Amino acid sequence: MPQQQTRCPSCAEPLDPEDDYCGACGLNVTGDVPSAAATPETATATAPAPGCVHCGSAELAADGYCESCGGAQPRPRDHQELTADGVAGVTDRGLRHHRNEDAFTVAATHLPGGEPAVLAVVCDGVSSSARPDEASATAVEAASAHLLTALQRGRRPDQAMREAIGEAARAVAELAKDGTRTPSGSQNAPACTYVSAISAAGLVTIGWVGDTRAYWIPDDRESAVAYRLTEDDSWAARVVAIGLMNEAEAYADPRAHAITGWLGADAEEIEPHTVSFTPHVPGVLLVCTDGLWNYAEAAADLAERVRPDARTEPLAAARELVDFAVTAGGHDNITVAVLPISPPAETTLRTVPLQSASAGAAPLHSSPTLQLHRPGSGS
């Protein structure tokens, strides 16, 4: 199991053994006192460009850090926004992590009959594993490529979803075999959690492994109810499900957020959960990492943060949710994708209950072992 890293004494950012400076706040963690000119506080708006965004120094290392103050420089994955035919997503590094270990994509395609289909894939790298940022990006790429191809060929969404999770799992597991070592020498298997959503021909299908989540948020929150569509693969969810503790006891336990399901070579049991339903009222699907839901865990609480016009302004809605999480503390990477759902007129009068395939789904690998990634893993 990946080991927990040490943390910055100032901002609690995870540190690698070879770090001289905290990548998030720039604190010298070696115990040496830096010169006044080398501290992040000396950054000014008139610093020559290009240069360090913290102190203005032109001495920038190839690894993205300032040689003078140690501050991390902006990276492309720090903040990204994507849109595709009405579905939108935003990811942000947050305030505490030195890099963004989340990854996501949104995409649109057509079924063989010409009906439009949109999808979103969101993955959260497990911070206590090696190369979590690569794990999440690899999973997103593998899953989205398979989903697009499968839907275009007429594959049923639930089948395509299970296959896509399998493809993502295999791709992440392969990372552990390429011989790449982290700067600290760790060879812990890269790992991430996973959630994705498909909206096609009036049907919504969700698939997940881990504690990345999906929520249904209706436009009319007075007469319809927001609810969570996924069940976490976590220690707390497991002990509640088997009756060892009630929910209050389980979530008060320090082990509550340890995950029991993830994608990676060290995941002995991968059970891809899927659920499908037909929305009968307009609304939006939210697929997100715990960097968001940690600040509004209950569906009703999260719904209060979703702007009323999210279905017609999904990018603005995603931005506001990310801003909410950053303002609330930004302790983790934050990613959210918003999929607008507008049921055809003939489906607004009927309700189809949730149908979960997870209970009868065969795991990709079978093992009775209960595996845990520790809390604070970033997933």
From TrEMBL:
Per the UniProt entry, the signal peptide is none
Pinpoint the PPM-type phosphatase domain residues. 86-341
Where, if anywhere, are coiled coils annotated?
A: none
Give the residue ranges for region: Disordered.
Answer: 358-379
Protein name as it appears in the record: Serine/threonine protein phosphatase PrpC
Source organism per entry reads Kitasatospora gansuensis
The organism's lineage is: Bacteria, Bacillati, Actinomycetota, Actinomycetes, Kitasatosporales
